[in-house]
Task: structure prediction
Amino acid sequence: MEQGFAAAPLPEFVRREFESYLDCGLLSRGFAVLACEGCKERRLVAFSCHGRGFCPSCLGRRMAQTALNLVDHVLPPVGLRQFVLTLPFELRARVAYDGKLLGAVARIFADSVLGFYRRQMRDLWGVQGRSGAVTVVQRTSADLRLNPHLHGIVLDGVFAMGDNARPVFHPLPSLETEDVADVLQIIRVRLLRLLERRGVIEDRAELTLLDDGLAEREPALAQLAAAAVSGLAPAGPEQRQRPPIALRGQLGVKITGPLAAAELGFSLHAATRADATDARGREALVRYALRPALAQERLQLLDNGLVRIALRRPFRDGTVAIDLDPLSLLCRLAAAVPPPRSHTVRYAGVLGSASKWRALVVPPPGTEDQATETGCTRGRPPTHRSRYRPWAELLKRTFAMDVETCPKCGARMKLRALVTKPSSIERFLRYLGEPTEAPPLSAARDPPYFKSRAVRRALGELDSPPSANSSQGELFEA
Result:
């Protein structure tokens, strides 16, 4: 991957993500020193890379940070429902690297769902109100294919102004599968109009994409994105026991499950809900929407040189894990990196920053809020209540690691120093007998690029790299 793909270099933000990840958790790149106040035991905690693409550790802490702030300071204590929208295969690579287009898609998605709540409560229950939503952008599927899709955490009802000039929440009594199908049709029609108006597609029926110039600006990224969406080499594809499911269908909504519908490559799922009194369920729902692309426990290096990705839940054909050549895994990870200045969390309705109702519906600041107690929020509007979460708290909540408690005597560990200078790092590590240099990087691989001989043998090309139309990946089926 050093020279990119197809003789074209990878974009700088992708290369920087990989380089930072290689330094994540290495003591030789800097660390924090903690000392026990009782037995003087010392502990070193390496710095992280703060990656946004695929680092399980950094994204896990980001998930914990954002979930805590949403639950404590943004989402009111009402019932929550998750709406998940997926897009057709033909649109995924285009939407993944067009921030303005992705933002417009997210706005239409949230506005369509909130509009349904507004109309449903008005027409059936006579309540004139407004709802709100937090939309989270996920870039990959469970098998790390490029699949930008939207998780909408929606207030399961509407707020209406009460007698005391304070909004009162009115929950939606029930949601039917037919309602989900209607919302999906509204979203699909509005999105196709948007894509046609912006010159993204030429034909709504066939989803014929017009050239956006990405192949000329970033040829390596464009080819990797197309391969990561479809699973073609060098990012796939998979080998299945049964024929793959058709990507497109006939016009008309198809019910795929309870509160789930699909039409012409678009799909909408709304079966996940958390009650207002279920604090653990609310946090679990938010954390699921914010989860990292890949959990470390789902990744395994096999004896035959392939990398196995365990799936969160089996595919329809019974597949429970995917075996890939390491190069294919790197290609999928490269496509998972979001471009710079691409927002992954968006707010709508009464939770939007411009809403006059936001300060009236978000949770009031609690006495336990350290930032409020110390006066750090002085001069800010009442909606700015999120506070800094200490890294020790995030480590404990995310990975069950208590770095502030001494493992020997149980006393409190106190931060003593942040070691960042190379000379100090080397001197400190040499005294402790720890490696002072980072592990060396392997040289760029000459052809054949794929490590697995089984893959090259299946291609019939043991001495040359596969073409872009070759089949390369394998699925482990049980």
